[in-house]
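Morning run. Coffee first, then this:
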Amino acid sequence: MPSLHLGDFISSATCGSLSGTPYGALEQYELVDFLAAWTELHREALAVLPERIHPTAFIHPSAIVGDDVIVGANVRIHEFSTVRKGAVLCAGASVGFNCEVTKSYVGENAVLGHRIGINHTLIGTDAHLSAGVSIAAIAMSDDMRNPDREVIMRRPGGIYRCGTAQFGALIGDRVQTGSGIGLGPGVAIGRDSQILSGVTLAARVLAHHSVVSAPHTADAHVRSRSRLGQRRS
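And here it is:
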Protein backbone atom coordinates (compact mmCIF):
# COMPACT_ATOMS: atom_id res chain seq x y z
CA MET A 1 0.00 0.00 0.00
CA PRO A 2 1.34 3.50 -0.81
CA SER A 3 2.30 5.77 2.07
CA LEU A 4 0.34 8.82 3.21
CA HIS A 5 2.34 10.66 5.84
CA LEU A 6 0.64 13.45 7.81
CA GLY A 7 3.81 15.54 7.77
CA ASP A 8 3.57 15.77 3.99
CA PHE A 9 0.24 17.61 4.34
CA ILE A 10 -0.18 19.35 7.70
CA SER A 11 1.91 20.89 10.46
CA SER A 12 1.87 19.86 14.10
CA ALA A 13 0.68 22.16 16.87
CA THR A 14 3.51 24.48 17.91
CA CYS A 15 1.90 27.04 20.23
CA GLY A 16 1.46 26.77 23.98
CA SER A 17 0.81 23.62 25.96
CA LEU A 18 -0.71 21.79 22.99
CA SER A 19 2.76 21.46 21.48
CA GLY A 20 3.66 19.13 24.36
CA THR A 21 0.82 16.72 23.60
CA PRO A 22 0.52 14.12 20.83
CA TYR A 23 -0.89 16.91 18.64
CA GLY A 24 2.58 18.48 18.77
CA ALA A 25 3.92 15.38 17.02
CA LEU A 26 1.29 14.90 14.32
CA GLU A 27 3.84 15.14 11.52
CA GLN A 28 5.45 11.84 12.51
CA TYR A 29 2.34 9.72 11.88
CA GLU A 30 1.20 7.69 8.93
CA LEU A 31 -2.47 8.53 8.40
CA VAL A 32 -3.78 5.00 9.00
CA ASP A 33 -1.79 4.73 12.24
CA PHE A 34 -3.03 8.08 13.53
CA LEU A 35 -6.66 7.26 12.79
CA ALA A 36 -6.34 3.96 14.69
CA ALA A 37 -4.79 5.68 17.72
CA TRP A 38 -6.68 9.00 17.61
CA THR A 39 -9.05 8.37 20.52
CA GLU A 40 -6.25 7.30 22.85
CA LEU A 41 -3.95 10.13 21.72
CA HIS A 42 -6.69 12.62 22.53
CA ARG A 43 -7.05 11.17 26.03
CA GLU A 44 -3.31 11.59 26.50
CA ALA A 45 -3.52 15.22 25.43
CA LEU A 46 -6.36 15.96 27.85
CA ALA A 47 -4.40 14.33 30.68
CA VAL A 48 -1.36 16.61 30.32
CA LEU A 49 -2.95 19.93 29.38
CA PRO A 50 -3.15 22.38 32.31
CA GLU A 51 -6.37 23.82 30.85
CA ARG A 52 -8.73 22.37 28.26
CA ILE A 53 -9.99 25.78 27.12
CA HIS A 54 -7.42 28.55 26.99
CA PRO A 55 -8.47 31.71 28.89
CA THR A 56 -7.84 33.89 25.82
CA ALA A 57 -10.33 31.96 23.68
CA PHE A 58 -13.63 33.61 22.73
CA ILE A 59 -16.70 31.37 22.76
CA HIS A 60 -20.00 33.01 21.90
CA PRO A 61 -22.73 32.33 24.48
CA SER A 62 -24.87 30.58 21.86
CA ALA A 63 -22.06 28.18 20.86
CA ILE A 64 -21.86 24.63 22.24
CA VAL A 65 -18.48 23.14 23.18
CA GLY A 66 -18.23 19.50 24.28
CA ASP A 67 -16.63 18.37 27.52
CA ASP A 68 -13.69 16.70 25.75
CA VAL A 69 -12.92 19.49 23.26
CA ILE A 70 -9.54 21.25 23.35
CA VAL A 71 -9.59 24.98 22.57
CA GLY A 72 -6.26 26.77 22.14
CA ALA A 73 -5.13 30.34 22.67
CA ASN A 74 -6.99 33.12 20.84
CA VAL A 75 -9.45 30.72 19.24
CA ARG A 76 -12.80 32.24 18.23
CA ILE A 77 -16.04 30.24 18.11
CA HIS A 78 -18.92 32.27 16.76
CA GLU A 79 -22.71 32.20 17.06
CA PHE A 80 -24.67 28.93 17.01
CA SER A 81 -21.67 26.73 16.26
CA THR A 82 -21.13 23.31 17.84
CA VAL A 83 -17.70 21.80 18.54
CA ARG A 84 -17.83 18.30 19.99
CA LYS A 85 -16.62 14.72 20.29
CA GLY A 86 -12.89 15.18 20.85
CA ALA A 87 -12.30 18.09 18.48
CA VAL A 88 -9.12 20.19 18.72
CA LEU A 89 -8.94 23.88 17.79
CA CYS A 90 -5.33 25.00 17.74
CA ALA A 91 -4.15 28.51 18.59
CA GLY A 92 -5.68 31.26 16.48
CA ALA A 93 -8.26 29.06 14.76
CA SER A 94 -11.64 30.60 13.93
CA VAL A 95 -14.99 28.81 13.69
CA GLY A 96 -17.63 30.93 11.98
CA PHE A 97 -21.39 31.21 12.34
CA ASN A 98 -23.46 28.01 12.53
CA CYS A 99 -20.68 25.49 12.00
CA GLU A 100 -20.45 21.90 13.26
CA VAL A 101 -17.03 20.46 14.08
CA THR A 102 -17.00 16.80 15.13
CA LYS A 103 -13.84 14.88 16.12
CA SER A 104 -11.62 17.03 13.96
CA TYR A 105 -8.23 18.73 14.24
CA VAL A 106 -8.20 22.38 13.12
CA GLY A 107 -4.67 23.71 12.76
CA GLU A 108 -3.19 26.98 13.91
CA ASN A 109 -4.79 30.11 12.41
CA ALA A 110 -7.09 28.02 10.22
CA VAL A 111 -10.44 29.61 9.37
CA LEU A 112 -13.78 27.86 9.03
CA GLY A 113 -16.30 30.22 7.42
CA HIS A 114 -20.06 30.17 7.93
CA ARG A 115 -22.21 27.01 7.88
CA ILE A 116 -19.37 24.52 7.62
CA GLY A 117 -19.68 20.91 8.73
CA ILE A 118 -16.58 18.78 9.24
CA ASN A 119 -16.32 15.28 10.69
CA HIS A 120 -13.28 13.09 11.45
CA THR A 121 -11.11 15.56 9.54
CA LEU A 122 -7.61 17.04 9.86
CA ILE A 123 -7.11 20.63 8.72
CA GLY A 124 -3.69 22.22 8.39
CA THR A 125 -2.18 25.52 9.49
CA ASP A 126 -3.53 28.70 7.83
CA ALA A 127 -6.13 26.79 5.81
CA HIS A 128 -9.26 28.76 4.88
CA LEU A 129 -12.63 27.10 4.18
CA SER A 130 -15.33 29.40 2.83
CA ALA A 131 -19.07 29.20 3.52
CA GLY A 132 -21.08 26.07 2.90
CA VAL A 133 -18.34 23.44 2.91
CA SER A 134 -19.38 19.95 4.07
CA ILE A 135 -17.00 17.08 4.75
CA ALA A 136 -18.60 13.64 5.03
CA ALA A 137 -16.85 10.90 6.99
CA ILE A 138 -18.75 7.72 6.08
CA ALA A 139 -19.51 5.97 2.80
CA MET A 140 -22.98 4.86 1.78
CA SER A 141 -23.93 1.53 3.34
CA ASP A 142 -27.03 -0.56 4.01
CA ASP A 143 -27.30 0.89 7.52
CA MET A 144 -25.92 4.42 7.73
CA ARG A 145 -26.25 4.33 11.53
CA ASN A 146 -23.66 1.54 11.60
CA PRO A 147 -21.21 2.22 8.75
CA ASP A 148 -19.06 -0.74 7.82
CA ARG A 149 -17.36 0.22 4.53
CA GLU A 150 -13.69 1.03 4.94
CA VAL A 151 -12.79 4.48 3.61
CA ILE A 152 -10.25 4.31 0.78
CA MET A 153 -8.41 6.86 -1.34
CA ARG A 154 -7.00 6.58 -4.84
CA ARG A 155 -3.53 7.94 -5.42
CA PRO A 156 -0.59 7.32 -7.75
CA GLY A 157 0.82 3.97 -6.78
CA GLY A 158 -2.48 2.40 -5.80
CA ILE A 159 -5.29 2.39 -3.27
CA TYR A 160 -4.71 3.79 0.21
CA ARG A 161 -6.78 2.03 2.86
CA CYS A 162 -7.62 4.18 5.87
CA GLY A 163 -8.36 1.20 8.14
CA THR A 164 -11.60 2.74 9.39
CA ALA A 165 -15.17 3.32 8.25
CA GLN A 166 -15.03 6.94 9.49
CA PHE A 167 -12.66 9.44 7.91
CA GLY A 168 -13.50 12.70 6.16
CA ALA A 169 -10.50 14.57 4.81
CA LEU A 170 -6.88 15.55 5.28
CA ILE A 171 -6.64 19.19 4.22
CA GLY A 172 -3.13 20.55 3.88
CA ASP A 173 -1.57 23.72 5.21
CA ARG A 174 -2.73 26.90 3.46
CA VAL A 175 -5.42 25.16 1.40
CA GLN A 176 -8.21 27.52 0.31
CA THR A 177 -11.73 26.56 -0.70
CA GLY A 178 -14.63 28.36 -2.29
CA SER A 179 -18.23 27.89 -1.19
CA GLY A 180 -20.81 25.16 -1.75
CA ILE A 181 -18.26 22.31 -1.69
CA GLY A 182 -18.72 18.66 -0.73
CA LEU A 183 -15.69 16.58 0.27
CA GLY A 184 -15.22 13.04 1.51
CA PRO A 185 -15.25 10.45 2.65
CA GLY A 186 -11.56 9.95 2.02
CA VAL A 187 -9.94 13.05 0.52
CA ALA A 188 -6.38 14.32 0.97
CA ILE A 189 -5.58 17.77 -0.40
CA GLY A 190 -1.95 18.83 -0.77
CA ARG A 191 -0.53 22.02 0.66
CA ASP A 192 -1.27 25.38 -1.02
CA SER A 193 -4.10 23.98 -3.13
CA GLN A 194 -7.33 25.74 -4.11
CA ILE A 195 -10.73 24.05 -4.38
CA LEU A 196 -13.10 26.32 -6.28
CA SER A 197 -16.82 26.69 -5.59
CA GLY A 198 -19.18 23.87 -6.48
CA VAL A 199 -16.63 21.04 -6.40
CA THR A 200 -17.50 17.57 -5.08
CA LEU A 201 -14.64 15.16 -4.31
CA ALA A 202 -14.27 11.81 -2.59
CA ALA A 203 -11.74 8.98 -2.34
CA ARG A 204 -8.87 10.93 -3.91
CA VAL A 205 -5.44 12.31 -3.08
CA LEU A 206 -4.49 15.66 -4.64
CA ALA A 207 -0.93 16.89 -5.10
CA HIS A 208 0.38 20.12 -3.59
CA HIS A 209 -0.53 23.33 -5.45
CA SER A 210 -3.54 21.75 -7.14
CA VAL A 211 -6.44 23.88 -8.42
CA VAL A 212 -9.77 22.06 -8.75
CA SER A 213 -12.84 23.55 -10.41
CA ALA A 214 -16.31 22.13 -11.06
CA PRO A 215 -17.05 21.40 -14.75
CA HIS A 216 -20.44 23.08 -14.62
CA THR A 217 -18.80 26.35 -13.55
CA ALA A 218 -16.68 26.51 -16.68
CA ASP A 219 -19.57 25.40 -18.90
CA ALA A 220 -22.10 27.93 -17.60
CA HIS A 221 -24.04 29.70 -20.36
CA VAL A 222 -24.77 33.40 -19.91
CA ARG A 223 -27.42 35.30 -21.86
CA SER A 224 -28.40 38.94 -21.87
CA ARG A 225 -31.62 39.79 -20.02
CA SER A 226 -32.19 42.77 -22.32
CA ARG A 227 -32.38 40.50 -25.37
CA LEU A 228 -34.82 38.19 -23.64
CA GLY A 229 -37.01 41.19 -22.91
CA GLN A 230 -36.91 42.32 -26.54
CA ARG A 231 -38.12 38.88 -27.69
CA ARG A 232 -41.17 39.07 -25.46
CA SER A 233 -42.16 42.51 -26.81
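DSSP finds three helices and 24 strands in the chain. Good start to the day.
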